[in-house]
C-alpha cells in the first residue's frame, strides 16, 4: 500500500498507520497519492482499525481526492497575495477602524506617506492623529456612518505626520462593521497637502488681484468676444456714469 505514496511521504504514512494500530485516536492526514500512470493528486486519508472479536483484524482506509479544494485554496491565496501587494504598494494608505475608532489595521504605505510604521498606529484612536479643529467634523461623519450600515463618506481633514507637521488628507470611509470579514470602518486616505497649498496660494493670489482690481483709480473691465461686460471695477462704473458696477455687468 505504501507504493501509493511518493518515497518522501512513506515514512510519515507508516508512522501514522502505526499510531492507529496501537490504538491512538485516528484522524485525517493530507498526502500525495501516486496513480498507476505516475501522475499525482492531493488527498485526505482517513484510517480506522477493523476489529473482530475484540482483536485487530486490519485497517480501513478512505482516500478523498481534494484536488479541486487545493486549487481553490491556491487561487484564493494568490488572489489574497495580489490584493495585499496592491494595498501595500498603493499611493494611498488604508486603515480599518473598530466601532470606537481605534485602528485595527494599517497598510505599510502609511509609513511612506506619514512616517508612522503600521504597528505604531495599530491600537491607537484614529482621532489622535487628527487636528483638534477638525475633530468635531470628523466625529459627525463617523456618527452618520455608524447609523447607516454600508454607507460611504468622503472628507478632507488634517493628519499629523510623525515629524509633527500637519498634512491634509483626502479620505473615503465606509461602514463595514456588519461585514464579518472586516468588522470595521474601512478608510482609504491620501496626502493632498500640495494640492491644498496650491489651492490656498491660488485663492490668495485671486484675492490680491481682486483688491487691486477694485482699488485702482483707472477703469478696468473684462469683455467677452461678443462684447458683453463680464466684470468691471467700481472706478470703471463711475467713469461710465453708473452708481453701481452691477448695472454694467452683462451689458
Please summarize what this structure is:
This protein has helices spanning 7-21, 67-88, 109-114, 118-121, 135-147, 193-215, 234-239, and strands spanning 29-34, 40-52, 55-65, 93-97, 103-106, 152-160, 166-176, 184-191, 221-223, 229-232. By secondary structure, the chain is an alpha+beta fold. The chain folds into 3 domains: 2-70, Beta-Lactamase (2-Layer Sandwich), CATH 3.30.450.20; 91-196, PAS domain (Beta-Lactamase, 2-Layer Sandwich); 216-251, no CATH class.
* Helix coverage percent: 25-40%
CATH topology name of the largest domain: Beta-Lactamase
- Decide which structural class fits the backbone: alpha+beta
Measured distance between first and last alpha carbons: 100 Å
Order of helices and strands: HEEEHEEHHHEEEHEEH
Q: How many domains would you count in the coordinates?
A: 3
Given this structure, which CATH class of the largest domain is correct?
A: Alpha Beta
Strand segment count: 10
Radius of gyration, taken over Cα atoms and rounded to an integer in Å: 35 Å
**If you average the pLDDT, what whole number results?**
85
Measured by DSSP, the beta-strand proportion falls in 25-35%
CATH architectural name of the largest domain: 2-Layer Sandwich
| CATH H-level homologous superfamily name of the largest domain | PAS domain
Count every helix, treating DSSP H or I runs of 4 or more residues as helices. 7
Amino acid at each position: 500500500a505504501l507504493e501509493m505514496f511518493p518515497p518522501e511521504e512513506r515514512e510519515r504514512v507508516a508512522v501514522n498507520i502505526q499510531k492507529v494500530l496501537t490504538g491512538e485516536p485516528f484522524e485525517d492526514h493530507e498526502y500525495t497519492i501516486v496513480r498507476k500512470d505516475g501522475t499525482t493528486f492531493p488527498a485526505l486519508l482517513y484510517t480506522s482499525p477493523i476489529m473482530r472479536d475484540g482483536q485487530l483484524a486490519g485497517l480501513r482506509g478512505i482516500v478523498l481526492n481534494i484536488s479541486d479544494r487545493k486549487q481553490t485554496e491556491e487561487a484564493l491565496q494568490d488572489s489574497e497575495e495580489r490584493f495585499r501587494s496592491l494595498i501595500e504598494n498603493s499611493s494611498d494608505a488604508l486603515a480599518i477602524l473598530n466601532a470606537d475608532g481605534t485602528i485595527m489595521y494599517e497598510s505599510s504605505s502609511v509609513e511612506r506617506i506619514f512616517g508612522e510604521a503600521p504597528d505604531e498606529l495599530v491600537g491607537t484612536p484614529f482621532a489622535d492623529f487628527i487636528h483638534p479643529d477638525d475633530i468635531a467634523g470628523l466625529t459627525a461623519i463617523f456618527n452618520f456612518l455608524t447609523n447607516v450600515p454600508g454607507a460611504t463618506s468622503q472628507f478632507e481633514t488634517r493628519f499629523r505626520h510623525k515629524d509633527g507637521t500637519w498634512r491634509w488628507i483626502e479620505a473615503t470611509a465606509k461602514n463595514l462593521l456588519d461585514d464579518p470579514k472586516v468588522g470595521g470602518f474601512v478608510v482609504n486616505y491620501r496626502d493632498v497637502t500640495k494640492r491644498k497649498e496650491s489651492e490656498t496660494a491660488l485663492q490668495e493670489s485671486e484675492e490680491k488681484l481682486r483688491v487691486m482690481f477694485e482699488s485702482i483709480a483707472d477703469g478696468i473691465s473684462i469683455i467677452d468676444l461678443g462684447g458683453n461686460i463680464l466684470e468691471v471695477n467700481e472706478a470703471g462704473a463711475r467713469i461710465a456714469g453708473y452708481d453701481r458696477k452691477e448695472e454694467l455687468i452683462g451689458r
